[in-house]
Amino acid sequence: MMQNTFPATFSVVSTQALVTEVIPAYGLGEIADCKLQYVGVNDTFKVTMVNKATYYLRVYRSQWRSYDEVTYEVEILNHLHRKGISVAHPVPSKDGSFIQVIQATEGSRCVVIFTTAVGKEPDYDVDPESKAYQYGLAVAHLHHASDDFTSTTTRAPLDIDFLYRQTIEPVRPYLLHRPDDWAFVQAYAERFYQRLSGWPPTALDWGFCHADLQSCHAHVDQEGKLTFFDFDCCGPGFRAYDMAVFRWVSRLKEKEAIWWEPYLRGYLEVRPLSNMDVEAIPWFVAGRYLWHVWLHTTNANDWGHGWLGDEYFDRLLANLRAVEADYCLGK
Fold this sequence. Notes:
The chain is of the alpha+beta class. The protein has helices at residues 15-22, 67-82, 128-146, 160-166, 179-197, 239-252, 256-270, 275-298, 300-303, 310-326, and strands spanning 31-39, 43-49, 54-59, 100-104, 107-115, 206-209, 218-220, 226-228, 235-238. It has two domains: 15-115, 2-Layer Sandwich (Phosphorylase Kinase, domain 1), CATH 3.30.200; 128-326, Aminoglycoside 3'-phosphotransferase, Chain: A, domain 2 (Alpha-Beta Complex). Strands 1-2-3-5-4 form a five-stranded antiparallel β-sheet, with helices on one face. A two-stranded antiparallel sheet has the order 6-9. It has a two-stranded antiparallel sheet with strand order 7-8. A hairpin with a 4-residue loop joins strand 2 (43-49) and strand 3 (54-59). It is globular, with a radius of gyration of 21 Å.
């Protein structure tokens, strides 16, 4: 029988240990409840206090986010909060620090507690044009408030090389038995890389990006106030890509014709974009499909490989061909 603890690449930490060893360091009061809510890129726990206050505790995966990367996220959230942008921002511990580090089976993991994003996800089945317009307004204000952000650390840029080259390599093993499809994915990524890299370096608006501004990563309260959360994927990048994420999800939900125009109109009322930025958005929608499959394949050792079969890649290839045809990107 093995005597040593067997290695793990990913574990779910004990809720009870968080209650007794981590949360008290924040001085939030008496804890009524702590429950695991989501297991995904990171693990999220809902913490409810006796006084009814609610917080969300995130345990970052050790191989996904480094201490410096989490520091960058904490610093941009504090910056936006100071600027009056409504975000689920980090809560300081009693010693003033925002990040705790715990030792899990697989290694060191960062822990941050966040305030609640009050309200619920916008219901785009009701008055979708107005909801999309308001979301565009809010994203523009977020970008504007982050223009002067500086960090004590660095984070990998969300640049063209990442979106169109680094993202496709983890796909290769899944398409070895489909060489024609793998060749298509390679050519697809390279064609778009060459198109976007051909523009002057300063042609597109560059700055802080949330990088996952789907409709589900903001809540709206009863007064219509919108609060952003889940900045895990954030970093410096092209603002056109940040906007393309919403267009991408509107395509997935088959609502692009309804959602996209009011979203863009709302954004432009607050923050102008160059014609080249607007022209780049469809190209970044194409890149978003590649990023999404990269997310799934690069995390497959923790999430599982079973669901990444031929049906999954049939859908991916259909989406790639559709976005290319719909936006005339192949010309």
